[in-house]
Known about the structure:
globular; 8-stranded parallel barrel
Amino acid sequence: MEKLVFERPFIKKLNSGMPSKFGLKTRMEPITEIDEVSVKELIDKYGSPLFVISEKTIRKTYKSAERAFSTRYPKVQFAWSYKTNYLDAVCRVFHKEGAWAEVVSGFEYEKALRNNNPGDQIIFNGPDKSRKDLELATANGSLIHIDHFDELYALIDLAEKSEKKPKVAIRINMDTGIYPQWDRFGFNYENGEAWDALNRIMLSGNLDLVGLHTHIGTFILSADAYGKAAAKLADLAVSLERKYNHVIKYIDMGGGFASNSNLKGAYLPGSDTVPGIDEYADAISSALINSAIKPDNLPLLILETGRALIDEAGYLLGTVLANKRMADGRRSTILDIGVNILFTAFWYDHNIRPAQPFSEHSEETAIYGPLCMNIDVLREAVDFPPLKKDDRVVINRVGAYNMTQWMQFITMRPNVVMIDEKGGVHIIRRNETIDDLVSLEKLPPHLK
Ligand SMILES: *Cc1c(COP(=O)(O)O)cnc(C)c1O
């Protein structure tokens, strides 16, 4: 007879759904399938942990964002923020939907080229562009968003020796009522630095000023801040028209719209507090159409939305390794999902759900990852049903930033699969093996 698993008995009040000061307990439902593909089968076939991306959700989210903006403003263009998730398959879904590419490093720029983006549909942002990057972007006619004066002077110098005029915009930071203000990127609006940079570009004569750009922050919960930012960019566009008779082609409002994830410390869940995409679209489009920009000169509106377009499409599946009682009697559950692959666990109270039916009783539980590190905590304390070893869990809304900020640490990075619109499952990044890792290492001769 098989030996039963022993768990030390412990007397503890279970929560069976009685009302508390927050109201009735909301019933947790298991997530047993994703786009009608069984979670159990996904794990059996592709291993645990496993990232899953729903192509259907990406396309649906993208279409509704595009609709929200294009019904309110005549010319709209999205550019996919590579750093949010730069797996090629993900980027290509966005590109097929019509998004350009937005990159912040030479490596990302190369990735965008390999994904067949025409040069003039790649936006190059960020404070770190090498001379070589700038030359390549100029030769390809890409949109170079200048971050600081040193870059501006490098471009003026480069343009003197180059056959093509670099197409440039400047990144502008400003007070939009959001604090702390993100003022380390780009040129400041209020102190006149942005206007100074624009004058230098215009007077240099060898740069083609095509746009104005801002990115006011990330997970911005105020749509109003975007209205303020758009109004300030419109003011600069009008000043350029007035002084130089120069009409810019686009205003790029950056990214930063919140997703429905639950920020740590927030009192209510994200889905109840986050502005809808329509509210952001309303604030931005109103500011632009009500500005003093002449109707014939209305610029293209570019959006570099990252998080809000991909978070919902990503899932992370995992397995219970063990249950434990802590010294103080608290229950803890250990999963095979570490913070090294779920970086956003530091910011969000992730929604972790069982992947099979479970007991209706629940208990305050700490949920840990498998790393031999004290910081490896997925949830400090969550009302959670008792799961058994080998039970499965699903964490939803993990599509943004995890598959770029993950790191190989103690455990390796797992498979990533995409479920296509017909329910077909494809590996879009295979799991790492020890061979992948040691292939990068070299031994000095005396240690061989
Ligand atoms: C990161 C980034 C984005 C995307 O931001 P989200 O908050 O994910 O929408 C867009 N533009 C720039 C310049 C960025 O650095």
